[in-house]
UniProtKB/TrEMBL annotation:
<dbReference type="Pfam" id="PF03259">
    <property type="entry name" value="Robl_LC7"/>
</dbReference>
<feature type="transmembrane region" description="Helical">
    <location>
        <begin position="83"/>
        <end position="104"/>
    </location>
</feature>
<keyword id="KW-0472">Membrane</keyword>
<keyword id="KW-1133">Transmembrane helix</keyword>
<feature type="domain" description="Roadblock/LAMTOR2">
    <location>
        <begin position="9"/>
        <end position="100"/>
    </location>
</feature>
<keyword id="KW-0812">Transmembrane</keyword>
<dbReference type="InterPro" id="IPR053141">
    <property type="entry name" value="Mycobact_SerProt_Inhib_Rv3364c"/>
</dbReference>
<protein>
    <submittedName>
        <fullName>Roadblock/LC7 domain-containing protein</fullName>
    </submittedName>
</protein>
<dbReference type="InterPro" id="IPR004942">
    <property type="entry name" value="Roadblock/LAMTOR2_dom"/>
</dbReference>
Length: 135
């Protein structure tokens, strides 16, 4: 898994360089395990990844209530005092999360995240797990 994380370093750095204000980027599996990160410390990234699992589940449940939706969460944006939180579907069972300060422009952030996912989405996948093992 460590080599897998190392392969994402340059891609996540490109996103961080492309949008001013990014404080942390986390790539995570649908079950809330951190795959890779840029910025911040590992413990914070692990907490963000775990929280994202619940958030993406909640967003999908709400999407199920929209008659024209296929029930798939594509992106969540949360504005808080002092910054933004972005969560985007990045591939089968994988997500891209970004924490930023108020300097980050949401439109630019969304576009840059979408570009990153389009370029490397197939590599941002995480196989489903059962009993802690990939199936």
């Amino acid at each position: 898994m460590m080599a897998y994380r190392a392969n994402f370093d340059w891609m996540l750095q490109d996103l961080a360089k492309g949008v001013p204000g990014i404080q942390m980027i986390v790539v995570l599996s649908a079950d809330g395990l951190r795959i890779a990160r840029h910025g911040g410390d590992p413990d914070t990234a692990d907490r963000v990844a775990a929280a994202c699992a619940g958030l993406q589940s909640l967003a999908s449940a709400v999407a199920d209530e929209i008659p024209t939706s296929d029930g798939q969460m594509r992106m969540v944006l949360i504005e808080v005092n002092g910054g933004y939180f972005y969560l985007m579907a990045a591939g089968p069972n994988a997500y891209l999360a970004v924490l930023s300060n108020i300097v980050a422009e949401p439109g630019l952030m969304s576009a840059q995240m979408r570009d990153l996912v389009d370029r490397i989405g197939p590599h941002l996948t995480s196989p489903p797990r059962r009993n802690g093992k990939a199936v």
